[in-house]
Fold this sequence. Notes:
By secondary structure, this protein is mostly helical. The chain has one domain (11-153). Helix content is 50%, strand content 5%. The protein is built from 9 helices and 2 strands; from the N terminus they run H-E-H-H-H-E-H-H-H-H-H. It has a two-stranded parallel sheet. The chain is globular.
Amino acid sequence: YRRLQAKETRxxxxxxxxxxxxxxxxxKVLFVRDPFHRLIATxxxxxxxxxxxxxxxxxxxxxxxxxxxxxxLVSLCRPCLVQYDYVVMFGFLRQELGHLLRRAGLxxxxxxxxxxxxxxxxTYRWLSEQMFSELSAQQKQQLSHFYRxxxxxxxxxxxxxxx
Length: 163
């Protein structure tokens, strides 16, 4: 879109007509991941200074400034503002990326790295169970509330936060 070539600009800086014209010229793909899995990954990457997952979650819940790593997806990707052509769920990457590449007319098999989606899903299920058991009932409720719009917007049916 020609106006973007001048400098980096946030989508919110454009009026509705400009946004529609700009976004209409792109294929829009959104990659989503269970918010609880995002928290686990952030904790394991050492982005918090907390010694335990429970204290890290409390740090997230008490924080006045929401870090990009655990910010709700709906506030990052604006699914109500942007009509995405594809939504790709973490855990189904190989299947969905292959489909996207074929739709783009590219050879899917040779461009994709090896994904072990079933192993990833099993590992995150096990990690989720372990980490979720560390949390108090109040923390679980607060996290579900914090991510309520993500849980409503995307089909994270197996998320521990959906319960």
